[in-house]
Amino acid sequence: MSETWTFVCATAELLPGEMRTTFDEITSVPIIVFNLDGALYALEDQCSHEDFGLSSGGAFDAATGTIECVLHGAKFDVRDGRALCAPAYEPVAKFPTKVEHGGVWTRDDRD
């Protein structure tokens, strides 16, 4: 498990309804961070249905708190990573976020 936090962006660069991508500094896992009405959530940037980046054209719907994979239309809840419709049945990994020193931070906290 990584204890090292990865800087995503300045807080002013991630406004409500926006998302940003980064790579964990230790594990090199791609991560998407979402600002949903001022709350920050982070998910692995990979559809659980197929090895495809959710941020690769994926639509973040701030009204419903979901992201849709453009490859086959699977949707995930950005708050907890759960799959909301077929063809995805497994959730995507959720990661912690924090705001510190004017920046947004995340990390891959899996064992």
From TrEMBL:
Keyword rRNA-binding belongs to the record: no
A molecular function (GO) term: dioxygenase activity
Residues of the Rieske domain: 6-106
Gene3D superfamilies in the record: Rieske [2Fe-2S] iron-sulphur domain (2.102.10.10)
SUPFAM superfamilies on file: ISP domain (SSF50022)
UniProt cross-references to InterPro entries, sorted A to Z: Rieske_2Fe-2S, Rieske_2Fe-2S_sf
KW Flavoprotein (keyword) present: no
Pfam families (UniProt xref): Rieske
Keywords: 2Fe-2S, Dioxygenase, Iron, Iron-sulfur, Metal-binding, Oxidoreductase
PANTHER family per the UniProt record, alphabetical: 3-PHENYLPROPIONATE_CINNAMIC ACID DIOXYGENASE FERREDOXIN SUBUNIT, FERREDOXIN-RELATED
Protein name: 3-phenylpropionate/trans-cinnamate dioxygenase ferredoxin subunit
Species annotation: Luteimonas terrae
